[in-house]
Every structure is written in C-alpha cells, then in structure tokens.
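Incident log, support desk, overnight shift.

02:14 A customer reports that sequence design results differ from what the structure should imply. Their input is reproduced verbatim below. On-call engineer (initials T.W.) acknowledged and began investigating.
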C-alpha cells in the first residue's frame, strides 16, 4: 500500500504533519487487519501487510477493507488542518501469483504501480485485476465510476 500524493501533504503542511498523517494511516490499516496478520511500514509512505491465511478468495476483500478504512474519515493534523488521505493497494497471493517471496514482493509492487496508474485509491490484485473503487455513503473519497 502506498499513500496517494503523500509528497503534497509534506509540501503543503510540513513534515511533522506528514508524520502525523502516516501514524494515523498506520492506525487505520492496523484496525482493518486481523489477528495473525503482520502490518509494517515499508519505506517512506508505503505499508506492507502479510496475511498468512489470506488466499485468492479473500485477498480482494482484505485489500478493499484496508483501502476503505484509510479513506473513510478526514485526518486531523496537529496544525488543526484536516485532510483526506487515500492509499493505492497492490496485492498478490503465494503461490497463485508468485513462486517465492521475492516474486511475491515484485508482483505486489507491480500491482501497486498499476493501481496508481489506474487513478489511485484503487486495488489491483494478482495478474493486474483492478477493483474499481465506488463512491458510497461510507466512502466519500472514492472516485465516481468511470464510463468508457
């Protein structure tokens, strides 16, 4: 997972507020994960979640729950400013989408960049299947459906 447009948060509000936003996003991701899953900050504004019991039939639900939990409410910064943050999620499942841990990380990272390229605030799983985010009452940050 990568926080969408995080550089603009740091540029507009400053690095201390960016740190506050990252801490809140981490808390929201942790609240959306289940016992036994390992959530970690994975670089600047990226997070990773390892789910030992997550399979191809449940990865989409988990990834979408993580995405929704971040976008649901505004984040209040120490400055008093409030902002809406979103994450793009790339997911992959071993051994369905990768044959070892290195390939699993590469597949998830490739899917993360595909989610960003598809418009951000999206989930991409496995071999590039995009889960379109929809604007709903509980997710006002989701973009409206795209029409082709």
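02:41 Re-run completed on a clean worker. Output:
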């Amino acid at each position: 997972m990568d926080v969408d447009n995080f550089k603009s948060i740091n540029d507009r509000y400053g690095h201390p507020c960016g740190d506050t936003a990252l801490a809140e996003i981490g808390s929201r991701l942790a609240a959306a994960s289940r016992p036994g899953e390992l959530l970690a900050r994975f670089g600047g504004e990226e997070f990773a979640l390892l789910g030992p019991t997550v399979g191809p039939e449940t990865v989409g639900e988990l990834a979408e729950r993580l995405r929704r939990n971040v976008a649901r409410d505004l984040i209040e910064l120490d400055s008093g400013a409030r902002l809406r943050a979103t994450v793009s999620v790339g997911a992959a499942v071993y051994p369905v989408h990768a044959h070892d841990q290195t390939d699993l990380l590469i597949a998830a990272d490739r899917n993360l960049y595909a989610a960003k390229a598809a418009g951000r605030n999206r989930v991409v799983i496995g071999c590039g299947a995009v889960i379109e985010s929809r604007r709903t009452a509980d997710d006002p940050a989701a973009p409206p459906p795209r029409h082709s």
